[in-house]
Amino acid sequence: MAYGKSLSFPELIRKKRDGETLQREDIKHFIQAVTQGSIQDCQIGAFLMAVRLCGMEPEEMLSLTLEMMSSGTVLEWPERWHGLVVDKHSTGGVGDKVSLPLAPALAACGCKVPMISGRGLMHTGGTLDKLESVPGFSVHQNAEQIWKILDEVGCCIIGQTEELVPADKILYAMRDVTATVDSLPLITSSVICKKAAESLTALVLDVKYGSAALYKTLDSARELAQSLVTVGNQMGMNTAALLTKMDCPIGRQIGNSLEVIESLECLKGRGPADLRELVTKTGGYLLCMCQRAETPEHGSEMIAETLDTGSALRKFQAMLEAQGVKHGVAEALCAGNGDYFQVLRHAEYQEVLHAEKEGTVETIQALPLAEVLHELGAGRSKAGEQINPSVGAELLVTVGEHIAKGTPWLRMHYDLPRLRDGQRHTLQAALVISDCPPFTAGSRITEILTPEGMRWGGTEELSSASSQHIQI
Ligand code: URA
After folding, report:
1. Which residue has its alpha carbon closest to ligand 1 atom 7?
2. Among candidates 265, 249, 260, which has minimal Cα distance to 133?
3. Domains of the chain from N-terminus onward
4. What are the catalytic residues?
5. Which residue, among 256, 276, 290, 28, has the nearest Cα to 126 in the 3D structure?
6. Which conformational region is residue 70 in: left (phi greater than 0), alpha (psi within -120 to 50 degrees), or beta?
7. What distance in angstroms lies between residue 184's CA and the mean position of ligand 1's atoms?
């Protein structure tokens, strides 16, 4: 089928298959047909595979991102919010609850945070699933409601709406069934088009690498981060990326309800150091990139202050109430010494596992823990599957600590199905004990990619789409 001067779909697919460069018009034609349903599924699949195998030139990737963004509503904000609208995106990790404290902390610093998040798939938890363990919380908010919540509270955490980037929804579902999820240009355009549709000033990407991340090596994660930073900046958002290690879980709590509890602890100025570091550092960069802090360090201090003074917690409570949680429920969660299980459902069974030998905790492998939790109902294998928010695990020891044989190290929370012996063995093998001396675990953040020419807090334009690395 040909539209005016547009290429026919077979010709467009052939061009990409043979490694030729598509023009902006070709990509526009393809994305419009995807959105309108005027192209066959097999043609979409063939196009995606051609991109997966041949890659895309930078200008094709930018055209794809622009056209995907334009396939739906692009959010518009009032003039008075100019320069204040920010967000972050994580490629997904075990125990990654950073968004929950970060969005209200940024709001407490005067930013507007329209955080459009996702659900968990396989071993990584989704921010929306975590928040839905709070009774009454609704992730469904239309554009008008988003405006109102941002105006009154400053942050919201919501699901993708029907109007926003519909082309991505269709293409993502097709990628899932055509073995084309792991394509750099397709990931880049999918992530960035959604953020661009939020009309952001600044975006920080947390690109994870390691045994429990999608990207196993630092080099592969850096390649993705570079691509995201380049296209994000070309799309007009100040975009930077943190490369962070994802081998052992973030914080001490994994599982939907338990991660809400740990986020509340962080918002009360407590909680684990690694979670606080990710929240303060990510927030520090964002505050600097939207010129509310002079340096990332200054920005981190501002975020830390919101955690220590309770201003971020008050924003979180206001966000819960604005998104449907009853005042009494939100207040019970946010009270200084709240009994969280008054409000959140406790799993029926708890079981503590004990260390099988003495030594230093060298690491706690996140992937096997997450896989067992997934089998117990904490995660989903296909979009739309029900999950059990009460299933989870609490780490009772920290990496680097010396422990005696028999030390309780993990508390499992589950309903039915119950924990099986094979799963107990998998969990025990996740605790790696060695005879090295005790140590303090270092930062998870290994590297930061910023756009070249960016001067923190300065007025210099983001002069180039290429990026520079800062080794930590
Ligand atoms: N998240 C997205 O939104 N898209 C991808 O392709 C991968 C992760």
Report:
1. 187
2. 260
3. 9-55 (1.20.970.10), 79-336+447-471 (3.40.1030.10), 347-434 (3.90.1170.30)
4. 89, 168, 175, 190, 194
5. 256
6. alpha
7. 10
Q: What is the mean pLDDT, run by run of 10 residues, along the chain of 472 residues?
A: 73 98 97 97 98 98 98 96 97 95 98 90 79 97 95 96 91 92 95 96 97 95 96 97 97 97 98 97 97 96 98 98 98 91 96 98 97 93 86 98 98 97 98 97 95 50 48 54
Burial class of residue 455 (count of CB atoms within 10 Å of its CB; 0-12, 13-18, 19+):
exposed
Q: Report the sign of the C-alpha dihedral through residues 161, 203, 301, 260, in that order.
A: positive
332 close to 342: Cβ distance less than 8 angstroms = yes
Q: Is 305 left (phi over 0), alpha (psi -120 to 50) or beta?
A: alpha
Q: Which atom of ligand 1 is nearest to the CA of 194?
A: 3
Q: Which atom of ligand 1 is nearest to the CA of 92?
A: 8
End-to-end CA distance of the chain: 53
In this structure, is the dihedral angle defined by the CA atoms of residues 354, 356, 358 and 364, taken in order, positive or negative? negative
- pLDDT of res. 383: 75
Q: Give the span between the Cα atoms of 401 and 355, in whole angstroms.
A: 12
Q: What's the rounded Cα separation, in Å, for the pair 297 and 274? A: 16
DSSP symbol at 84: T
**Residue position matching structure tokens 């997904």:** 92
d(CA 186, ligand 1 centre) in Å: 8
* Separation CA 330–CA 317 (nearest Å): 6
Closest residue by Cα to atom 3, ligand 1, is 191
pLDDT in tens, 60-86: 999 999 999 999 999 999 999 999 999
Phi, psi of 147 (to 5 degrees): -55, -50
Residues with CB under 6 A from ligand 1: 187, 190-191
Distances (CA, A) of 180 to 16, 72, 142, 198, 244: 15, 23, 31, 26, 25
CA–chain centroid gap for 307, Å, is 20
- Atom number of ligand 1 nearest to Cα 190: 4
How much distance in Å is there from the Cα of 152 to the middle of ligand 1? 30
CA atoms within 13 A on the CB side of 147: 9
- State both tokens at 462: 């983001």
Task: Choose one of 117, 172, 194, 198 to mutate for the ligand 1 pocket test, by most ligand atoms within 8 angstroms of C-beta.
Answer: 172
User: Do β-strands 238-245 and 202-209 pair in parallel, antiparallel, or remain unpaired?
Assistant: parallel
How distant, in Å, are the alpha carbons of 84, 101, 104, 230, 465 from that of 113?
A: 8, 12, 8, 22, 24
